[in-house]
């Protein structure tokens, strides 16, 4: 027996819980564009959580900054907005040891 392994799978079950709860909501994304928009937002929220960001403040920050970019195709400008960027404002960060 390997003592480094967890005895249960609660962590993995907790990780997929938002996806399972949300699936009934996705029945209302009755067009491909609606489904794509839902998937994009879901991906942004979950990526923010994995990078220890507060999803609401991070999305607010993105929605404020993205329209102000002079060249939205500029990779350097977009790098500054990525969830792992050290240049994100402190309000976007969550300082908790738990997810």
From TrEMBL:
Transposase IS66 C-terminal domain segment(s): 43-84
Under the heading InterPro entries, the entry gives: IS66_C, Transposase-related, Transposase_IS66_central
Indicate the segments forming the Transposase IS66 central domain, all copies: 2-37
What's the protein called, per UniProt? Transposase IS66 family protein
């Amino acid at each position: 027996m390997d003592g480094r392994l967890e005895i249960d799978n609660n962590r993995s079950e907790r990780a997929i819980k938002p996806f399972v709860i949300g699936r009934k909501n996705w029945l209302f994304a009755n067009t491909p564009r609606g489904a794509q928009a839902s998937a994009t937002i879901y991906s942004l929220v979950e990526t923010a959580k994995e990078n220890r960001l507060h999803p609401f403040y991070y999305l607010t920050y993105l929605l404020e900054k993205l329209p102000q970019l002079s060249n939205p195709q500029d990779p350097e400008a977009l790098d500054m907005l990525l969830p792992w960027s050290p240049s994100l404002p402190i309000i976007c960060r969550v300082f908790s040891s738990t997810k």
